[in-house]
Design goal:
Elements (H helix, E strand, L loop, with lengths): L11 H12 L9 E2 L5 E2 L21 E6 L4 H13 L4 E4 L16 H7 L9 E4 L5 H12 L9 E2 L4 H8 L9 H13 L8 E4 L1 H5 L4 H21 L4 H6 L1 E7 L3 H21 L10 E5 L12 H14 L4 E3 L8 E2 L2 H18 L12 H23 L3 H6 L2 H18 L23 E2 L23 H5 L2
Parallel strand pairs: 3-4, 3-10, 4-5, 5-6, 7-8, 8-9, 9-10
Antiparallel strand pairs: 1-2, 11-12
Length: 473
């Protein structure tokens, strides 16, 4: 008995006819989506036969980095050991004052770092310092704590990004020095530590969580990358070598196809930036993905598990090199072991049950994804050019030009949510009659949108899409 099945070859007109039949009188154009970055994409796209896979840095499975952000170092140590024993292969250290700590974080002391690392085999674990106002101090503490590491030890990413930090707090940590002089001097000190891994970071999630569109986030990451490249150049570091020491961070949200295309577009834009500078990079950039905070709801937070799964799937298909997922109860406060385990196991299931870590670029050749990738790359490049025309990202932030664009994107998106045009399960659609207890370690007492201290310019503050709905409950 033959199991072979043959189908008649269909062309686009055949598919269009079938779609229009299913629409029952509605126009085909009703299925076309207007992206927030100005372009449109629709339901039908032909296969791109000559598409090339967009490679990432290496073809090993993406690294699962669990956030270590507890205010209690001894409890953070228990969490770190549980995460590593449970399948994570890296830790993302978020100290108090880091935007990634979401209002919590390890105390900025050597004792806290030592306690958190008790029993952790740091010679076989990937480590990442989340961008922080005191990155130099933290890097020195980390280097002192780790001592000499073998050449085969996993990388340590130091997360130096004073621009994203400045954007988040409304002032740059440059004191009275010119920004280019300060950044070059800081990078020189970090280079002296001779730790394997990236030194500088171009962190886009700060802009994303404040409301930036995918192109605005991409443009900001490119502008920060260029700033770092110029700083390395002033130190006499070859641009190709410098590009190896700069990591990129992107947010991943529940918009599956947009997120997937954004990660792919980021690699295209990064390659174009280096090509424009006349640099031939030895390898693609290292991209770290972090689940979007703005997509998460404090109402019925179990629905966040669905959003996190989609975000992780999209980032994995977009070939993120590493990924950190917020626990589903993060909007409510400091999460317990159960919530942390779920965020970790989401990634393990995607790696071990779906095989997403195996293809070089699983979306390559898909007409819809290639279309989205190309359009997002073009929009991201234009956003970058706009920032550079304003004098670079430092000047754009000082004049609040970039903040104005992000605010407009956030306002349009929020209006769609408030009007019911964009539904959020558990918050604006199918809300629970009564919320449940989630066993938080520490409840959140203040929103992250509150300002901290004096500002020199308008900060980009994280604002979740459901905050207005939550306030009305």
């Amino acid at each position: 008995m033959s199991l072979e099945t043959t189908f008649d070859r269909q062309n686009e007109s055949d598919w269009r006819e079938a779609v229009e039949k299913g629409l029952k009188g509605k126009p085909f154009e009703s299925l076309v989506t207007q992206a927030e970055d100005g372009f449109t994409y629709g339901p039908l796209h032909g296969h791109v036969g000559d598409a090339k896979a967009i490679a990432r840095r290496d073809e090993s499975p993406w690294r699962i980095l669990q956030a270590i952000d507890d205010i209690d170092p001894s409890r953070a140590n228990i969490q770190a050991l549980a995460d590593l024993e449970g399948g994570a292969n890296g830790l993302a250290l978020a100290f108090a004052g880091a935007p990634a700590a979401l209002g919590f974080g390890l105390p900025v002391t050597e004792d806290a770092l030592s306690q958190a690392f008790t029993g952790v085999k740091t010679d076989i674990v990937s480590l990442r310092l989340e961008p922080h106002p005191r990155t130099l101090d933290l890097a020195l503490m980390l280097a002192s704590r780790l001592g000499a590491r073998g050449q085969d030890a996993p990388p340590i990413d130091l997360g130096y990004d004073p621009i994203a930090i400045g954007a988040a707090v409304g002032r740059f940590p440059f004191e009275d020095r010119a920004s280019h002089e300060a950044i070059s001097a800081d990078l020189g000190r970090l280079m002296d530590l001779r730790l394997a891994g990236s030194i500088a970071e171009a962190d886009g999630r700060v802009f994303h969580d404040a409301g930036a569109s995918p192109a605005e986030e991409t443009g900001a990451v490119l502008a920060i990358t260029l700033t770092h490249l110029k700083a390395f150049d002033r130190l006499g570091i070859d641009p190709a070598e410098a590009s190896e020491r700069i990591g990129l961070t992107l947010a991943a949200d529940q918009r599956q196809f947009i997120t997937l295309a954004k990660f792919r577009a980021m690699r295209l834009c990064h390659a174009k930036l280096l090509e424009t500078l006349g640099v031939e990079a030895p390898r693609p950039p290292r991209i770290h993905g972090v689940s979007s905070y703005r997509m998460m709801s404090a109402l019925d937070p179990h629905a966040n598990l669905l959003r996190l799964t989609i975000a992780a799937f999209a980032a994995a298909c977009g070939r993120a090199d590493s990924l950190t997922l917020h626990p589903h109860t993060a909007p409510l406060g400091l999460t317990n072991a159960h919530a942390r385990r779920l965020s970790r196991n989401l990634q393990l299931l995607l790696q071990e049950e779906t095989g997403l870590d195996r293809p070089i670029d699983p979306a390559a050749g898909s007409g819809a994804i290639e279309h989205l990738t190309d359009h997002l790359a073009q929009a991201g490049w234009e956003a970058f050019r706009r920032i550079e025309a304003e004098g670079g990202i430092v000047e754009s932030l000082k004049t609040s030009a970039l903040q104005g664009l992000i605010a407009a994107s956030r306002k349009a998106r929020q209006e769609a949510v408030d009007a019911g045009a964009e539904l959020i399960i558990g918050a604006t659609k199918y809300p629970m009659a009564a919320e449940r207890d989630h066993g938080l370690l520490v409840k959140r007492s203040a929103p992250l949108t509150s300002r901290d201290g004096d500002t020199a310019f308008e900060p980009v503050l994280p604002i979740r899409l459901t905050e207005t709905v939550e306030q009305s409950r």
